[in-house]
Amino acid sequence: MSDSPSVNLISLGLGCSSHIPKKGKKLRISKFAKIATLALAFGLVAGTPAYAVDLQGSGASFPALLIEGCKAGFASNTSHTYVYASSSSGTGQANSDKSIGDFWMSDGAYTATTRRSTLVHVPLVAAPIAVLHNLPSKTQLQLSAATIAGIFGGTITRWNDPAIVADNNRTSVKVTYKLDANGNPRKDAKGDPIVLRTQNVTSHYTLPNQSIKVIYRSDSSGTSENFTNYLAKSAPSVWTKAKNKVFKDSFPGNINAIENLGRVVGAQSSSGVSQLAGKTSYSITYAEVNYATANKLKVAKLINPAGSAVSADSTGVSAFLASASQDANGFLTFDYATKEKGAYPLGIVSYLLADTSYPDKSRATAVKEFANYILSSKCAKDVGANLGFSVIDGDLLKKSLAQVAKIG
User: Fold this and answer.
1) Burial level of 58, CB count in 10 A (0-12/13-18/19+)?
2) CB atoms within 10 A of CB 184
3) What is the rounded average pLDDT for all residues in the chain?
4) Contacts of 53 (CB under 8 A, 6+ apart)
5) What is the pLDDT of residue 3?
6) Where are the alpha helices (DSSP H) in 98-221?
7) Which residue stretches of 131-251 are H helix?
8) May I ask the CATH architecture of the domain 129-333?
9) Sign, CA torsion 354/357/362/365
């Protein structure tokens, strides 16, 4: 069946004027003109191209800036349009349960019993979760997983705590990779990133004697799920609870304890926590790296298991994702213990949740085109690089495209 609806003018009684009786001919011709005009106005004529589809998406705030940034390019390349309602992974998952809209985004694999069996996961957007802070110094902060767990878990409460001091007065390894056209590390025959050189870097940072103001996501969030998973896997002796989409439900102590009141506070969405941190001196939070500049926040380096202090950028994320494994559902399992020297251990992937059985196949085709465009260099590289996102390529891209092919 053609994607373009067409109208047979004969079937509507709109044949040539020779078939119209002379009596009432003027009226019949006028009627013909009006109906033909309507047919043209609604594109109901044979030979027109496939009609445009207006897609509706919702879910995670993590990929929102990239999705919004690629909207114009998608429209000009496909003639389709979309609107994306950025909120949280929890909202995206709930909307997918009820088939509200056409596609949904989630920063964590959706495995709840309410998940529809026809949903497919597509690793669509990759980027770092950044640890953002509002310290006055120009020196770049660097933190280990155990220290971050202590800060967000409430056991490290002042900026000049010995653990923070130790993290920032040390010698670490800086890694430079051989990069491909997408800015990702090239890989050798074994699939390992190719290192061009390493160098030892010694840091010195005098930390202020100030209380740490912790700001966390209060809503159900895939960002929180990934962040708490990193803490639980990387510093299990400090972060003693399992990951959770709701930060306070993963908090290892009593988040409402007297010592935490007014010092550990929540806000909704990545933009919400970033805006609050920007207004709060000596604060710290976690969000996408692209929220730092707008809110005048600084981005901390993370000290990985290899002892390197790594920036929250696409190169470090790509090196980290190289160690991830993927199952038949498209779910990724991250290796937080990887010894890859340049790996940024808080790299995550945001999944597209799409249907394998759309009632309207034209919408299924448009969702496929959306997924392919977001993964393409026109979006992921040309737009995403300036926003701090990573380009999904190599084996992971092949796996993502295989998932896209299942949409229908």
Assistant:
1) buried
2) 24
3) 87
4) 80, 81, 362, 363, 365, 366
5) 41
6) 145-153, 162-168
7) 145-153, 162-168, 222-234, 247-250
8) 3-Layer(aba) Sandwich (3.40)
9) positive
Which residues neighbour 1 within 8 Å (Cβ) at sequence distance 6 or greater?
none
Torsion of CA 347, 353, 356, 359, to 10 degrees: -160
Q: C-alpha distances in angstroms, 121 versus 40, 125, 350, 375?
A: 40, 12, 10, 14
CB neighbours (10 Å) of residue 94? 18
- Closest by CA to 81, choosing from 335, 373, 400, is 373
Question: What are the CA-CA distances from residue 280 to residues 186, 259, 270 (Å)?
Answer: 40, 18, 15
Q: Which helix (H) or strand (E) holds 27?
A: helix 25-41
What would the pLDDT profile of 379-394 be if each residue is shown by its tens digit? 999 999 888 899 998 8
C-alpha angle 139-145-148 in degrees, rounded to nearest 5? 65
CATH architecture of 54-126+347-404: 3-Layer(aba) Sandwich (3.40)
Ordered by start, the domain boundaries in the chain are 1-51, 54-126+347-404, 129-333
